[in-house]
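Reproducibility note. Readers wishing to regenerate the assembly model reported in the main text can use the exact inputs given here. Chain order matters: entities are listed in the order in which they were concatenated for prediction.
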Amino acid sequence: MIPSGMPDSGKSAHWTYRIVLFFLAVTGFAQMPIFKRYYIADIPGLGWLDQFYMTHFMHYLAAVFLIGLVCYHMTAYILLYRKQFRITPAGYVRGSVLAGLLVTGILMMIKNFPGYGYPSALIITLDVVHIVFTVTFLAASTWALAGKQKWLVNVS
Amino acid sequence: MKNLTRRQFLKSGAISAAVVAAAPIPEIHASQSRIDNHLATLIDISRCIGCEACVDACQESNQDKFPKPVKPFPAMLPSRVPVEDWSDKQDVRNRLTPYNWLFIQHAVVQKDGQEMELTIPRRCMHCVNPPCVKLCPWGSAVQYPNGISQIDPELCLGGAKCKSVCPWKIPQRQTGAGLYLDILPSLAGNGLMNKCDRCYNRIADGKLPACIEVCPEQVQTIGPRSDIIRQAHELADSMNGYIYGETENGGTNSIYVSPVPFEALNRSIDKKTGQGRPHLKPVTDRMDQANNLAAAFLIAPIAGIASAIGRFYKLAKKQSHGEIS
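Running the prediction on these inputs yields the following structure tokens for the assembly.
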């Protein structure tokens, strides 16, 4: 969550956040067996998209980066910026969906440890909700980008 | 308090993320007691005579579970999507198919200077941490608390990811059956995946799996995993034998004991493996790499918060020294 309204979060921070999100989205969709079927994994350099263990690992890795970034920026906002900036409605929407993605993702990650498992109905619910949150977040981010809706706005 | 510079802020965020990713990862221990209580089978290869009574019993017992495809199959898009139809070859017994969840593998090996043939019942290994279940993107596969893994025919779309991630390529696809027919039959899915479910319904009724019950040589024994592992070691010690399945893919609930090394058995069957005929090679824990990384999720928030707090205090210190006006 790079607060794009925050004055000291520059282009580089935006790109860090976007790259992490991009890898999360790509490796997330790669969990479905679609990239080989639809020739995407045939594109030179994209063969790894058909390697399920590779994309699973990369999804975890990107999620670790995202959680680190989210916690850093949330804490920085609370300590440094909350008096000067407020979170916009667009920020709340994206933040809420992002939180939902993280919670469902972490629950699914726990399921993958040996000796852990959930009832079938819960697994399906988590899968579906995670995908719905992903699509919602991508739509909200596109909408915010197009409308130049920032995470934060200066209160003054 | 004045703002951090853009560079400072970004640098701290990037560093915290990098620290998290590179941090030493504590091992997350599984719930060992749950795994010890998994139902496991001991398969004594030295007792198997290859009579295929287990194959017959498996087919008979699971007849109602076999896929019933609707023909003609929907046209697949793109055309590269393979049609896999075993419905007219249900009598195939020398490999795994959607209609044959157990088969007998033959190996010819040398022991004490003499050639001997061993027969090996092969089916799903029922991994302790089954990738087919854990990585199914639809939640179509489930592992019961007793360790049995099952693909739900009501939910499976036949994408075959379970087969791709299975170290032994056990699940077998039948096109033209299952939920995908009701969604986007040409564009997504391709049938039903099928494999041994260890007769979960018979076990729920207090019965033995069909293959175990019918075996005239008592090749298989079933029980809690910890007991089966102990018995397997005792048996292996008694025959100077070898064990397969205890540690493969992080541990399975099918423990084979053989009088000859599994490398020798695998060499003998090697030319016939693949295409529904699983190997007997060593298998590392395929889920382990990502699961080890998952421990970093515990460190990530701490590192992120600590990094921001560190930046806050550093800035406050500078301010108190008048470095920032």
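We highlight two features of this model. Chain B touches chain A through 68 residues (CB under 8 Å). Residues 101 and 196 of chain B are 5 Å apart (CA to CA).
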